[in-house]
Structures are given as C-alpha cells and as structure tokens.
Amino acid sequence: xxxVPILCLLGALVFxxxxxxxxxxxxxxxxxxxxxxxxxxxxxxxxxxxxxTGRELFxxxxxxxxxxxxxxxxxxxxxxxxxxxxxxxxxxxSKARQGHNYTTGRPxxxxxxxxxxxxxxxxxxxxxxxRAAVPGIExxxxxxxxxTRATIETGSYVSSTPPSPFIRGTAGxxxxxxLDNVATTDYYIAHARVxxxxxxxxxxxxxxxxxNNGNNxxxxxxRFQLSEGSNLYSQSPFSDAGGNGQRLNLSNDILMxxxxxxxxxxxxxEPGFIEVIVGTITPDTYRFYQSLNRYYDTDGxxxxxxxxxxxxxxxxxxxxxxATDATYRIPL
Length: 332
Prior knowledge:
InterPro entries: DUF4249
Protein name: DUF4249 domain-containing protein
Radius of gyration: 25 Å
CATH class of the largest domain: Mainly Beta
C-alpha cells in the first residue's frame, strides 16, 4: 500500500521534467491595406447594392497573426477607379450600415463599407485600375480587364411543395444553360432573385439543402450552381475547364422567399419573374473565391492543409474583382 503514493510522486516528477518553455519570436508585421471590391457592368443602383452586398467596397488594415483584437474597417480611405486613359471614373464615400450609425445616416468609421458616388458602369473589354490609400499606410492598387458577357440560352422553373409549412414562399427547381465560348477560358458565377409583376425586387432565392434530390448538399467548386449575392462567403465560382465551348447547365433546387412587408394574415404579393444573373468573372475573382471557400473549409483546424487567401492588391491584400453580368427572366 505504501508503494502507491511513491509511484504517483515519481510519475509527477517524470511529467514535470518534460515541461519545456519555448520562446517564440513574434513574426514581424507591416500593416497593409486590405480590401474587397467587385466592379460590374450593372449600374450601382440602390436595388443593385441591396442585392449584391458581397460585391461592395470594404476597406480594412491587416494585423499581426498574434493580435487577438477583432479586425476593424477604416472609414477614412481614399479610393478611386481609373480607366485605361488615366482618368478617374469613380470615387467612393464611407456609408453607414444598419445597426452601425445607420439611423443617423452618419458615415461608419468603424466597419469600412463604401458606396460609389458617380454611378459608373464597367464596360466589357475595358481595363480599369483601383487605387486606395489611408493615412499612415502604403497605398495599394490592382488592375483588371472586364470580361465579355455570357450567352444565356434557356431557363426554366418548375414549382414543387415547400419542405416546411413555415416557409412563406415557394419551392421548385431552377435550370438554365449558357453557351460557352470555345475560343477563351471563362469563369462564371450565377445568382438569382425574384421580381414582382412590375419587374421590381420581390424576394431572394436560396438553395434548398433539404431537397430529396441531394444535389445541394454542399458547395462543389466543380459544379455550376447558384451563389448568394448578399454573402461574400457563399460564392460558388465555376470554370469551363473540361467543358470549354460546350453548353453549361445550372440546375438547383431552390426556395423563393418574400422579402417585404406582409399584409393581414401574413399575405404577400405574388411573384412575377425569376431573374437569373450569370456573371463572367475575371480569373483573379475566380481564384479569390476558390481560396476563400477552401479557407473556410478548414474551419480553424490546425492540422488542415494550409489554405492561404489569394490576393491581387499590391502591396496589400484582398480582391479587385470584375463581373460582366448577363440576365435572363423566367415568367412565373
């Protein structure tokens, strides 16, 4: 019986002798500008900005890997879009978001969101440069050439019963096909929204992950499928590699949900159209979304394969992306 505490003491001494304190030098870090912005051939109307919040300009500053504070946006950035002739064609102002000084209309100096002030529209085939700077940080820039518009051949929608009686909207299967250009390597991203009978925004569309067809179980970068316009982290870019010059088909089970004020008893107006938006995106935009999805797939796992984010902003971080959109309306 007397051997038990002695063995325990010996074990404690052994484990304590294995404890080693290792000093790790903090990696040097120079703060750099970090931003995301996607230029489109669509006019940046209030309706467009509401739907494509994932494309809007956001400006922040990088921080060291050992810093524990939450990264914050910058509201004091100077950002301009320059055309190939060297002319400034667009500038941006800081804006407030709902919940962040939104009710007062004051600029949001914390979260770093910006809106264009000139309403400029990108033209396919034209080259643009985005430049940004904030006080005390080295300026950054990136250049792109807007891609050509996709050709949407057909589109259809077949309704079905919603998976839940609590969903105020309709469910069904959305399909469309585009004719890919055989002469170029192209990258696409698809979105869809619902319009009323007057052609104004009615509601949003999301993938039906509970569908029995099982084709929406997860994001698959090798399959053409819908993305969410309002979420930077729910983008599904698609490459025509392996199908160059062929007809590319999108087919998703979806839920259409009304996004407006309900009437008595929860009534809402009838939808009129589904609008499919297929954007031809730049190679850098495709690479950025791919790397972003892979980064989030690691889910903070320290044993996962490294998933660095792609960046085309120099000498900073982030994305200056381009999307040339083609639209196709399906009557309901």
